[in-house]
Each structure stands twice: as structure tokens, then as C-alpha cells.
Design brief:
The protein is α/β, with parallel strands linked by helices. Helices cover 22% and strands 30% of the residues. It has three helices and nine strands. Strand 2, helix 2 and strand 3 form a beta-alpha-beta unit. Helix 1 packs across helix 2. Bound molecules: inosinic acid (IMP).
């Protein structure tokens, strides 16, 4: 992981480019779900909070908002890639169309865990909307239904993403320089 010292996030994806892509994703999602009734937009905390806010306000279909929070085991007590549920969805998702909204897929373990867990609750459907995909780092097979951008294997911040809780509110996606 890079250190924050002397960091100056270099712009990787500009605010305008993000905005244009979120417009496109919202149009695509609205078209795909038109006539299907309400969808549940399920934001994965914390990183997806800005994408969820922007995406949800651009949709033209009925939607409700829910959040879920997960974290990786980092104390060595579990195999690498193990994911822990920190906060569950409040309501039932049974019979509902669920769209998971996630900031980034790196190894893919988090999204894989979420899809598996939520499938067992028998929603009408589950799809995924992900802003960024580090495709060369991904270790598990995953279907991302709506993807913003593919990026390289570098640590990015901004637009909801952090490094040690810093830089989440940058309006663009920036790269933190590895030391
Ligand atoms: P995965 O389980 O390895 O796919 O990791 C997913 C989670 O790791 C994301 O939801 C982020 O919280 C975090 N993450 C992975 N890469 C980055 C990054 O470049 N910047 C910020 N967070 C990241």
C-alpha cells in the first residue's frame, strides 16, 4: 500500500468524465429496468456513497435506497480474501430487484461474498453496478453488469474512495503515488 506522505493525488479520471459515465450508466439502468417496478439500490459503505447519491438522482425508474457494510479480515485470523458483514440491509429483499452499487472491484472477494449472501435471500434479481474495476487484480470470476471504468493496479482515491479515510470527497479519481 502506498504511504500518504507527500501524496498529491494525480488525476486519473476527471470530474467531467465521471459525470458523463454516471449519466450513461443511469440511462442504461433506467432502460433495462423500465416497467419492472421498484428496484432496490444497495450501496456498499463506505466507498459507494457518492456514486449511489449521483446515480440514484439520475435514474428515471422507481427506486429505494439501502446500505450494507462489509470489511475484510485484516488480523490474519482468516484466509486472505475473507469478508465480514459489518452492517446488514435493514429490510427484506425477498422478491425484489436488487442492484448492488459498489465503488471498486479489486480482488473481487467483497462483491463475490455479497452476491452469494444476498442470493440466498431470494431476491427477484441481483445485478451489480461498479464504478471501477482493477481487472488484472481480480482473483474470482464475477459478472459486473454496469461498469464505469477499467483501471490498472494502482491505489485510487476520491469520489467516495479513500486511503486511510483520506480523500473520499475529492471530486475526481486520483492516484496516490506509491512510495
Ligand atoms: P476486493 O474485495 O479486493 O475487490 O476489494 C474491494 C474493496 O477494497 C473496495 O470496496 C474498497 O473498499 C477497497 N479497495 C480496493 N482497491 C481500492 C483502491 O484503489 N482505493 C480505495 N479502496 C480500494
Amino acid at each position: 500500500m502506498p504511504s500518504l506522505e507527500n501524496h498529491a493525488p494525480k488525476i486519473l479520471i476527471s470530474e467531467d468524465d465521471i459525470s458523463r459515465r454516471v449519466d450513461e450508466l443511469a440511462a442504461e439502468i433506467s432502460a433495462d429496468y423500465a416497467g419492472k417496478g421498484e428496484i432496490v439500490l444497495l450501496g456498499v459503505l463506505k466507498g459507494a456513497f457518492i456514486l449511489l447519491a449521483d446515480l440514484s438522482r439520475r435514474l428515471t425508474i422507481p427506486r429505494s435506497i439501502e446500505f450494507i457494510a462489509v470489511s475484510s479480515y485484516e488480523d490474519g485470523s482468516m484466509p486472505s480474501g475473507a469478508v465480514r458483514l459489518v452492517m446488514d440491509v435493514r429490510g427484506s429483499i425477498e422478491g425484489k430487484h436488487v442492484l448492488i452499487v459498489e465503488d471498486i472491484v479489486d480482488t473481487g472477494h467483497t462483491l463475490h461474498y455479497l452476491i452469494d449472501m444476498l442470493k440466498s435471500r431470494e431476491p427477484a434479481s441481483i445485478r451489480t453496478c461498479v464504478l471501477l474495476h482493477k481487472e488484472h487484480s481480480t482473483e474470482v470470476e464475477l459478472d459486473i453488469d454496469y461498469l464505469g471504468f477499467t483501471i490498472g493496479d494502482e491505489w485510487v482515491v476520491g469520489y467516495g474512495l479513500d486511503y486511510a479515510e483520506q480523500d473520499r470527497t475529492l471530486p475526481y479519481i486520483g492516484v496516490v503515488k506509491p512510495q
